[in-house]
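Exercise: predict the structure of this protein bound to flavin mononucleotide.
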Amino acid sequence: MNTLALQNLSYGMYVIGTTDGEKLTGCVVNTVVQAASAPALVTVSVNHKNLTNQCLKKHKLFSVSILSEAADSGVIGTFGFHSGRDTDKFATVPHSLTTSGMPVLNTGTCGWLECRVRDSFDLETHTMFIAEVLDAERLDGVPMTYSYYHRVIKGASPANAPTYVPQSAPVELPVSVAAPASAATWVCDVCEYVYDGEDGPFESLPDDWVCPICGVSKSQFSQK
Ligand SMILES: Cc1cc2nc3c(=O)[nH]c(=O)nc-3n(C[C@H](O)[C@H](O)[C@H](O)COP(=O)(O)O)c2cc1C
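Solution:
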């Protein structure tokens, strides 16, 4: 079996919004898929270890902010590489509430859905939630694809994402998206962002420079 074929599946980029008791929380996912149209149903796959998984099982209600290409990579870092267990993710991110009180991002989105969980299936590592779309809004912007996030923003996915590929695994990118041979080799230990040399040599970056994806300092980069 050539599991590299799975890397050719296409996805979008989303922020799930929900509540943990009184607190708003959520996480980045790339696994929202429309499963039916009448009624409109979507599926989303969320890792058992994510706080968001427990919240969806408990509260059943959630929002989906559909990220656009204008989305801030720092927001993806906050929602995709930190847990709501120790980070108040919505505290610093402009958002509005749907009629059910679910948080949706105000910027960097080209639409949102408000959903209620109808059913769920526990897989080995993830729960696949099936949810009915209660409300939705389409906004301006080009939807960000998972491929755009990797190719243009040069972001990575953490182990909790179902599409995670360990760094040691042989990643074969199509020729058109392969990194140039001279690509920088300083890699973020937290989110695997590869510094591309845009701001000069890595060693010369100022001490207050932070990873554009997950926000950690220079000291958490390793040379590979
Ligand atoms: C690009 C990207 C895609 C991701 N896709 C998923 C996904 O589909 N399902 C999932 O469970 N986690 C996914 N994650 C990981 C979660 O966002 C991450 O584990 C988050 O820290 C969980 O936060 P929580 O503990 O507050 O729920 C993704 C992260 C990134 C950056």
